[in-house]
TrEMBL record:
CDD domains: HTH_ARSR (cd00090). Pfam families: HTH_20 (PF12840). It comes from Arcicella rosea. Keywords: DNA-binding, Transcription, Transcription regulation. SMART domains: HTH_ARSR. NCBIfam families: HTH_metalloreg. InterPro entries: ArsR-like_HTH, HTH_ArsR_DNA-bd_dom, HTH_MetalResp_TranReg, WH-like_DNA-bd_sf, WH_DNA-bd_sf. Residues 1-91 form the HTH arsR-type domain. GO terms for molecular function: DNA binding; DNA-binding transcription factor activity. This is DNA-binding transcriptional ArsR family regulator.
Length: 91
């Protein structure tokens, strides 16, 4: 039980930001994005963008893979299913 509550706390904190929510919604439509595309999407500095992406990666809602010298991010759909199942139990 403690594991799932920690997971839910971590993921909901990551989602509770308008920039990160916008990143997640765009990823759900596009499938994957380069970090430079994320920066253009949210219109913030590279360091601020990296901060938001790092929080999403740490929350395990987003995965990152390196392609050459660039990083590409995508949704971790399994963890979204896990989060959804938690909320489903509450309804």
């Amino acid at each position: 039980m403690q594991e799932i509550t920690h997971f839910v706390e971590k993921t909901t904190n990551a989602i509770a930001d308008s920039y990160r929510l916008k990143i997640l919604l765009t990823l759900s439509q596009k499938g994957e994005m380069y970090c430079g595309e994320v920066q253009q999407l949210i219109g913030l500095s590279q360091s601020t963008c990296s901060h938001h992406v790092s929080i999403l990666i740490e929350s395990e809602l987003v995965e990152s893979k390196k392609e050459g010298k660039f990083h590409k991010i995508s949704l971790n759909r399994e963890n979204f299913k896990k989060l959804s199942a938690f909320f489903q139990e509450l309804s």
